[in-house]
Amino acid sequence: MSSGPGPLDESAWEELLSRLAGLYTSLCVFNSMAAYVRGLAGRQLAELASYVETRDLVSSALAGGMREECVDRVRRDPNAKLTPDCFPCDSAKRFFYHGLGVGLSEDFELEARRLRPLLVVGYYGQRALASWRTRMMDDVSRALSIVEAIYDAGAGRPQCVAARPNSADDVGAALGDLVNSTAELLPGYSPVIRLALALYSSSPEAVREALGVDVGSEAVRGLAGRLARLAERLRRPEAPSAGP
Q1: How far apart are alpha carbons 20 and 181 in whole angstroms?
Q2: What is the pLDDT of residues 150-181, one digit of tens each?
Q3: Residues 6+ apart with CB under 8 A from 154
Q4: For the chain, what percentages of helix, strand and coil (3-state, to nearest 5) are there?
Q5: Could you tell me the maximum CA-CA distance found in the chain, to the nearest angstrom?
Q6: Structural domain span for residue 147
Q7: Same domain (yes/no): 193, 215
């Protein structure tokens, strides 16, 4: 039998549900902030740069964290080429461009050509902000759908909290909260999740031997009702055999 807090402790279930709620809140906040930034697409840069509430977001999306030597090079020679290494991996530009999918063009060569006049003379012209699909935002949307499905299978989902960013730092902080909330739900953090994973991948005999838990007991069945998916697994009439 394993040592430490067991998966049948009521407090473990309460902690799991609390962490799930924290993840859901973080997903909602970050997704709403990203949606707001992406929703600026189609509006002219000159207009967005004139408003206090969008000025920092646009500035960060266009050239946030750009290397000074690249800025100087372009200002000395308006035809100088901007390359991806002008934007460090931890720059706001990379985050907005590759993560949120916001900038001047999904084609980086075109993005660089359109960015040069802004750096040289600060001229926006008739340029508008653009947005495109990214893997990160697809993953966030998928994660949000999964958590909502878990809630919908039980007692229903809580309110999805929305927020509007005023700066790139706001969006970055929301992403940091999301990463931390996700990490807290990793299997190593929760004995309840270890039990759930074991039930999906092992026989009742193996779970009893590894965790010291009788999955047929009334205690397990009672607590399993707290999560609909786990309860469904326990109600299956035929459990996999332990093997020869």
Answers
A1: 8
A2: 888 776 788 999 999 999 999 999 999 998 88
A3: 226, 227, 228
A4: 60, 0, 35
A5: 76
A6: 22-185
A7: yes
Single-letter residue type at 119: L
Give me 120's structure tokens. Answer: 């040289």
pLDDT digits (tens, 9 = 90+) for 34-59: 999 999 999 999 999 999 999 999 99
Specify the pTM. 0.72
Alpha-carbon span 199 to 213, nearest angstrom: 11
Structure tokens at 216: 């047929």
Same domain? For 202 and 179 the reply is no
Q: Give the chain's domain count.
A: 2
Q: Residue 102's CB: how many other CB atoms inside 10 A?
A: 26
Residue 199 lies in a domain: yes
The whole-angstrom separation of Cα 15 and Cα 189 is: 10
Neighbour tally for 16: CB within 10 Å? 21
Report which of 146, 113, 111 is spatially closest to residue 132, judged by C-alpha positions. 111
At 124, the amino acid letter reads Y
Measured from the Cβ of residue 114, the count of other Cβ atoms closer than 10 Å reads 18
* Separation in Å, CA 65 to CA 10, 42, 162, 170: 48, 24, 27, 16
Q: Any idea what DSSP says for residue 124?
A: -
d(CA 86, CA 82): 7
Cβ distance 95 to 68 under 8 Å? no
Please tell me whether residues 38 and 149 are part of one structural domain.
yes
Chain Cα centroid distance, residue 222: 33
Count CB atoms within 10 A of the CB of residue 198.
Answer: 20
